[in-house]
């Protein structure tokens, strides 16, 4: 029986998520499968991947063929690297501890890179928020100045009207006397 590690499509139209399964290559895409070893949700940013590392490694080592998308997922999670390192152990190139040390070093580098990317993304978002806030403050300052100018003009016009009315009243009282 030829086995494949592949994605099954679930979810609604336009919002799919994918269980990662091991299935007979002749089975339909969303049909019968042997084992579910993880899931992939591309709707989140970054995409959410949960994977049973040991079971995925077992199936890759016994010959299950991953599809292209699943191959990239397994590569990102380090399953293919661990398979490669275990092959080196079997050939006698290095021992199990050395293989584990190399894998841990790779994983630390990957995690460090992911944290740096997330920090850069957060810093960019904070800079954009600050720029928006500064633009809004400037816009509000300009609007406040124009409102103050209009109020000052209106107040000056009312004072001039009141002064003219007072002058007219004083002239009228002076003419009546």
How many helices in DSSP terms? 4
Secondary structure category = alpha+beta
Query: CATH superfamily of the largest domain, called what?
Result: Ribosomal protein S16
Kindly provide the radius of gyration, computed on alpha-carbon positions and rounded to a whole number of angstroms. 36 Å
Explain how this protein is built.
There is one protein chain. Helices cover 64% and strands 18% of the residues. With 177 residues, it is an alpha+beta fold. It has 2 domains: 3-93, Ribosomal protein S16 (S16 Ribosomal Protein, Chain: A, 2-Layer Sandwich), CATH 3.30.1320.10; 96-177. Helix 1 crosses helix 3. The model has no long low-confidence stretch (mean pLDDT 93).
Summary of the model, kept short:
The protein has 4 helices and 6 strands; from the N terminus they run βββββαβααα.
Blueprint (SSEs and pairs):
Blueprint: E1 3-7, E2 10-12, E3 15-24, E4 35-41, E5 48-51, H1 53-61, E6 65-66, H2 68-77, H3 79-91, H4 96-176
Parallel strand pairs: 1-6
Antiparallel strand pairs: 1-3, 2-3, 3-4, 4-5
Helix pairs in contact: 1-3, 3-4
């Amino acid at each position: 029986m030829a086995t494949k590690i592949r994605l099954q499509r679930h979810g609604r139209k336009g919002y799919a998520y994918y269980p990662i399964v091991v299935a007979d290559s002749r089975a339909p895409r969303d049909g019968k499968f042997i084992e579910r070893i993880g899931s992939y949700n591309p709707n989140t940013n970054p995409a959410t991947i949960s994977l049973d590392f040991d079971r995925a490694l077992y199936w890759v080592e016994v010959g299950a063929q991953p599809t292209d998308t699943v191959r990239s997922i397994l590569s990102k999670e380090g399953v293919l690297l661990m398979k490669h390192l275990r092959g080196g152990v079997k050939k006698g190139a290095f021992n199990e501890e050395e293989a584990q040390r190399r894998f841990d070093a790779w994983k630390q580098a990957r995690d460090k890179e992911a944290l740096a990317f997330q920090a850069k993304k957060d810093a960019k978002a904070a800079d954009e928020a600050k720029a928006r806030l500064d633009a809004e403050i400037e816009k509000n300052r300009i609007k406040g100045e124009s409102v103050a100018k209009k109020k000052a003009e209106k107040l000056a016009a009312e004072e001039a009207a009141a002064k003219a009315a007072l002058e007219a009243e004083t002239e009228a009282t002076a003419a009546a006397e």
